Amino acid sequence: MTIEQLVDVFASSGFNGRQLGDAAKLYARMIKEDATICLTVSGAMTPVGFGGIIKTLIERGFVDWIITTGANVYHEDHFAWGLPVKQGHFDVDDMELYKNEIVRIRDVYIKFYETLEAEDQIIQKMFEDKFNDEPFTTAEFCNMMGKISKEKSKHPEKSFITTAYEYDVPVYISTMKDSSLALNLAVHRLQNKVYSLDFVREIIEQAAILYNSKKSGILELGGGVPKNTAQQTGPLLDQILRRNDGGQDYVIQITDARPDTGGLSGATLQEGKSWGKVQDAHHGMITVYADATIAFPILALYVLSNQKSRKPKRLYKKLNGYYEKLSQDYFKTPGITRSKSKKVKKKN
After folding, report:
1. N or C: which terminus of the chain carries fewer CB neighbours within 10 A?
2. 58 assigned to some structural domain
3. Would you state the pLDDT for residue 245?
4. Where is pLDDT greater, at 129 or 344?
């Protein structure tokens, strides 16, 4: 049986098997219609090795920009530098792990000194003299990280961060300060080196990607802040900047969170329509209630098996132009006037 046949079986069944089959076919449709595709990744997907799938999707042109957590970026870089990440077990005495200097992510083990401390030293050296006293976005941060790991690491081919750098795929970190990436900047900040994250600039860039796309879609692995960061592009354009663009055309959500608890991770995609996050509450949206480590490889393999590679959109190099286009159009809106404050140019 081929993956196409398996997906057809899923799609012709019921419950979440059917949702998974339909989601795989919707992902293929997004690719066929040349939609600008955002991948959001929450949870610890890179320590368990799923960065390789993301890397391949980037290379094939099936992911155009990414929003993830700092933890996923931090742990993905281990593979580029050849730092060990091992399979372990979840049923273990964590006091014993602590004594043996092993940290645990469910059933994945990482040595404290051989991996975490080594990675910390790498990050600290990377950014000792980068972005000091000048505003930056997390896309710029990840692009720089990808560049350095591409040029200096042992196995640059083993990280989607280096691949994102090669293919000009912007990687945004939705919660920069809530990760070891930011923690490692502390040693420099204590020496009075200032890091100014321009978070407003980057949410405008993200909205500008949507604004400059004929069609746009999101593949969401889990929920959390990455999910909301991608979906809030619609409200920023329409509610705040007074456009009438309507949000995303397509959204696929893979989650194990329930909607009745009221959290964003479990919120239905249909609910997002009330906020203007999506174009249509009845079409182009599918939620699969499943573990992303099971469902994501099936979706990825399906499109890799039956979709032709797309030319990379190379959005990173277009961000400045997208930003300026949105800015110019905003100030053409009736009733909006430009402030007389000094305009600061931003270079990507």
Report:
1. N
2. yes
3. 85
4. 129
Please, which pLDDT band fits residue 249 given cuts at 50, 70 and 90? very high
Total number of domains constituting the chain? 1
Residue with the bigger pLDDT between 345 and 277: it is 277
Catalytic residues: 277
pTM of the model: 0.95
What is the domain-level CATH number for residue 274? 3.40.910.10
Domain assignment of residue 345, yes or no? no
* Identity of the residue numbered 73: V
Determine, yes or no, domain membership for 288. Answer: yes
Q: What is the pLDDT of residue 339?
A: 73
Between residues 335 and 330, which one has the greater pLDDT?
A: 330
> Is there a domain that residue 107 lies in?
no
